[in-house]
Design goal:
This protein has two domains: 220 residues, Rossmann fold; 122 residues, TT1751-like domain (TATA-Binding Protein), CATH 3.30.310. Helix content is 42%, strand content 21%.
């Protein structure tokens, strides 16, 4: 798809996006083309950045650099057409030492303020290997899991990451082609303008060399790769009927519904706002939850498995958080068998809703 062709199914479902990143320039060097493409498709964009980037190896260190990079960030998000941007003051390079719940609270606060349809993050490995990138994604995924929000993850194909590491001496991490379920065609012009705003970071930066070295042939359009952290289906049945069918399908796969959040009613009562029917069900399969908790006591941050049922015109959309996120966020191989079985059961439950 070229930028002049009709909006893809991916973009059609995205109305407001909150990008969660670690450093000022992540929104431009990494996500700039994606944010520009989303804005071009009519989505409102926002950015939450956890640090001021004061420990950059490219531009000195300390308070003066933090002030410089804060100004550069403001200029760059303006170029990208970002409607709302917030830069926090956590220590650059130290996000792993910040309690996850504290970072999650910031994401949830902004979700409450902006009501995004999606979050946008780096892939769970951080893409560049930087631990701050990994931590920012962990916080976003934990918040999304609690709130039932779909997440788009920016990722590199494994072969491209390997080639770039060989050529540029970087430490990018990639995914097998089969893991990347969305490809978004982009243009780089506005991204390059945003990158130019980060003057303190533009000297001998491997990311700039990445963008130049991966420039496609003139007949091709640049592409960005996204990983969707949800499992989604659309059914042609009314909302209320679908909710009952979802409960039954989950029960058939061994899941009980432990929590239920009627988002429409909550927003009407608390804020006086109206929206479509939107229900978040917290589903739990006790044997699988027990195995996951035995492997990692902190996995409760990603439990229960949230299932969203929401109305869209005459259709109803059912979305479930992909249990494989447990493995990606924690990096613990012992969780993979649990995630594999949970994902199989969740997919079976959703497939049972189809005629």
């Amino acid at each position: 798809m070229t930028p002049d062709e009709p909006t893809s199914d991916l973009l059609a479902g995205v109305s407001r996006v909150l990008a969660v990143v670690a450093h000022p320039d992540d929104e431009s060097f990494a996500l700039g083309a994606v944010l520009d493409r989303l804005a071009d498709a009519g989505a409102e964009t926002a950015v939450l950045c956890f640090t001021q980037g004061e420990l950059s190896t490219l531009g000195g260190a300390g308070g003066e650099l933090a002030r410089v990079r804060t100004a550069e960030f403001a200029d760059a998000v303006a170029v990208l057409g970002v409607a709302h941007a917030e830069l926090l003051g956590y220590s650059d390079g130290g996000l792993r030492q910040v309690p996850l719940a504290q970072l999650v609270a910031h994401v949830r606060r902004m979700v409450g303020e902006l009501d995004p349809s999606h979050l946008l993050v780096f892939d769970v490995g951080g893409v560049t290997g930087h631990p701050d990138h990994v931590r920012a994604t962990e916080a976003a995924l934990a918040a999304a899991g609690a709130l039932g929000l779909p997440v788009l993850g920016w990722a590199l194909p494994q072969d491209i990451a390997a080639r770039l590491n060989t050529e540029l001496g970087t430490s990018f991490t990639g995914r097998p082609a089969g893991d990347l379920d969305q490809t978004l065609t982009v243009t780089r012009a506005r991204q390059q303008q945003a990158i130019a705003c980060h003057r303190s970071q533009s000297a001998d930066n491997p990311v700039l060399r990445l963008l130049r070295s991966s420039r496609p042939a003139e007949t091709e359009q640049p592409k960005e790769h996204l990983m969707d952290y949800g499992i989604t289906i659309t059914v042609q049945t009314p909302f209320a009927d679908t909710v009952e069918r979802v409960r039954a399908a989950l029960k058939e796969q061994g899941f009980g519904v432990l929590t239920e959040i009627d988002v429409r009613t909550t927003l009407r009562e608390k804020l006086g706002e109206e929206m479509e029917d939107y229900l978040i069900l917290g589903a739990c399969n006790p044997p699988l939850a027990h195995r996951a908790l035995d492997a990692d006591r902190r996995i409760g941050l990603l439990l229960p498995c949230n299932v969203v049922v929401r109305a869209q015109g005459d259709e109803t959309i059912v979305e479930a958080l992909d249990p494989q996120v447990m493995v990606g966020v924690t990096g613990k191989a012992e969780l993979r068998p649990v995630a594999d079985e949970a994902a199989q059961r969740v997919r079976a439950a959703l497939q049972a809703l189809q005629p």
